[in-house]
Amino acid sequence: MDHYIPIMLKAKGLLCVIVGGGPVAQRKTEYMLSVGASIKLISPAVTEPLHQAAQNGSLIWHKREYLTGDLAGADLVYAATDLPAINELVAEEARQLHIPVNVSGPGQGGNFISPAVVRRGGLLIAVSTSGAGPAAALSISKELGDRYGGEYEVYIDFLSRIRDIVKREVSSVRRRHELLRAAAELNILDDIRGGSFQMWNEQQIKDWIRSYGT
Question: Average of pLDDT values for 148-157?
Fold first, then answer.
């Protein structure tokens, strides 16, 4: 079994080349658009949602077969056709150009895989079986989705606000670490679940910073 390392990649503004126009390519495209990537789609035919996305300018569609050279300038590549031979050609070019490439289907030419994802605002939980069982990854992600509900979106937003103000107001690195660790230990999830939590404003956070440890 191949071994992978988890990486949370900021995709906003990256150029993602997707080769293929069927349902798999559509899923890849929709997800990458949702995180702010720029999409170059290559396929002689596409699904209706992809066609609409091209018409409204959400992506650039090259209505033809893949050609060597199509990956120039790409940051990420998805080989998502239903033809393994084409997918392997795409993967080979990506490897030569040192571009991370995901290969759909049975192909072995890719060097990254797309995990099942649970997202709650800033909380992102990724589940992978290293390609061995995508259905199992989806099942596990569903269990995690049930465990980590919508309250975590509020919770992570709360921690993010504290972090931003701590970074701005506190110069000592050691003190910052102490405060951020203390914020993570605050017991507010029950209040969020119960509906009694009120998001702290900037002044409340500054007051908490001043009072912590005194």
Answer: 95
